[in-house]
Amino acid sequence: MTTARQSTAGTMASGRGQAQGLLFPGEVAERIGQRQSYRTGARLFTAGSRVSGLHLIVSGSVRILRGSDGRALVVHRESVGGLLGEVALFGSGHYPATAIAAEPTVVVLLPAAALRAEMRRSPDLAEFLMARLARRAEGLIARLDQQAHQTVVQRLAAHVVMRHAAEARSRNAAVSLGMTQTELAEELATVKEVVVRALGTLRRLGLIEPAGRGLYRVTDVVGLRRLAQS
Hints:
Layout: E1 2-4, H1 26-32, E2 34-38, E3 43-45, E4 53-59, E5 62-68, E6 71-78, E7 83-84, H2 86-90, E8 98-101, E9 105-111, H3 112-121, H4 123-149, H5 152-167, E10 174-176, H6 181-187, H7 192-204, E11 208-212, E12 215-218, H8 221-229
Antiparallel strand pairs: 1-2, 2-9, 3-8, 4-7, 4-9, 5-6, 5-8, 10-12, 11-12
């Protein structure tokens, strides 16, 4: 990991992690932020450790996991524009989960003490952070609802549909799962063996077929979407 103060102006651009358009003020990030780089698989922080501040993602993406008994589950994933650490900062003071870089990632660390000082000076900033925290809670509730009411096969179908939309450049193009089967199991709140069986189910239903080297060809995208939304 490398750390250095650099200008962050212009880095708060578009991205899935923005919580529906809520962007952290770039001038605050530039004034107090500390730029940090992480390689794939590196930990930004560990569950139970004391909060150091908020992490604002400039590039890359981060997976937030909780685990016990050797099993890890993805709580959420953040990409460019996403903030990490609000629960710890405004709650117990300790991170409730572990953050791992899903790819080479650059963040701006907003130190807790400096950020609290900025919040005291700016009610708008405080309101912004509370809105982000509320959106995070809404997202977690939606994720729990999906896990409670959809099977692993349905959640896997939704994932493959998303990968197909992101990667396929032609009707017969092969797509990847975007991660290892173990990581996908963590995303889908299950274990690798169940993911393997679910992939087999999608093949038997005629929705996908293996294309070699971990790739799959979507043979019935309409049926796949129907299954994901059922």
